[in-house]
Design brief:
heterodimer, A: mainly beta, seven-stranded mixed sheet, four-stranded antiparallel sheet, globular, B: mainly beta, six-stranded mixed sheet, three-stranded antiparallel sheet, 11 strands
Chain lengths: 115, 112
């Protein structure tokens, strides 16, 4: 079946550095991908919609300069957390929408810890 | 604005007992409702969607527009049903298709 690969699965970084998270659709093309974040024991919160070849659409309250999204190909979207701070520590999850059947598939998530 | 409410954070039942996980929503447009499940140490996966009107693993959910609810039910719970369940909402059409808004989740535990 369709798989979404998310990398890395966990990352620890120093405050002030930038971290890039990759989301790849395996065996299918995804013109649209979505990025979520999840705080401990809380729900998934939609951050942005990533569109191949165009700018991402951010949800209200999400800083676009803080969370840079690039969707340069039909199988890859990246989320870069710039100048990370401890409050950015969270679980980030991506999902990809199969262009042929509109089905959504989720990545396994990335745990980001900012020291 | 859209909102998905799952009133129960935790729900425990014994094997063979009926189970109902509640979900209420508010949305101004035409919503599509989903139930997602996350088993221990696994990724989130779709359980069912209201448009399909199907039963998956013995679970069913009916969209009640009058009560704005989409409760998940199973007549006889099994131990392997223990997981985190998320109710989610999306727009039916247009550019927002696929943008999911999740409830906080309900952790279901089925005791032997």
């Amino acid at each position: 079946g369709a798989v979404v690969s998310q990398h890395p699965s966990w990352v620890i970084c120093k405050s002030g550095t930038s971290v890039k998270i990759e989301c790849r659709s395996l065996d299918f093309q995804a013109t649209t991908m979505f990025w979520y974040r999840q705080f401990p024991k809380q729900s998934l919160m939609l951050m942005a919609t990533s569109n191949e070849g165009s700018k991402a659409t951010y949800e209200q309250g999400v800083e676009k300069d803080k969370f840079l999204i690039n969707h340069a190909s039909l199988t890859l979207s990246t989320l870069t957390v710039t100048s990370a701070h401890p409050e950015d520590s969270s679980f980030y999850i991506c999902s990809a929408r199969d262009s042929t059947n509109e089905k959504l598939f989720f990545g396994s998530g990335t745990q980001l810890s900012v020291l | 604005a859209q909102r998905v409410t799952q009133p129960e954070k935790l729900l425990s039942v014994f094997k063979g007992a009926p189970v109902e996980l509640k979900c209420n929503y508010s949305y101004s447009g035409s919503p599509e409702l989903f139930w997602y499940v996350q088993y221990s140490r696994q990724r989130l996966q779709l359980l069912l969607r209201h448009i399909s009107r199907e039963s998956i693993k013995g679970f069913t959910a009916d969209l009640n527009k009058g009560e704005t609810s989409f409760h998940l039910k199973k007549p006889f719970a099994q131990e392997e049903d223990s997981a985190m369940y998320y109710c989610a909402l999306s727009s039916v059409r247009g550019s927002t298709l696929g943008r999911l808004y999740f409830g906080r989740g309900t952790q279901l535990t089925v005791w032997p």
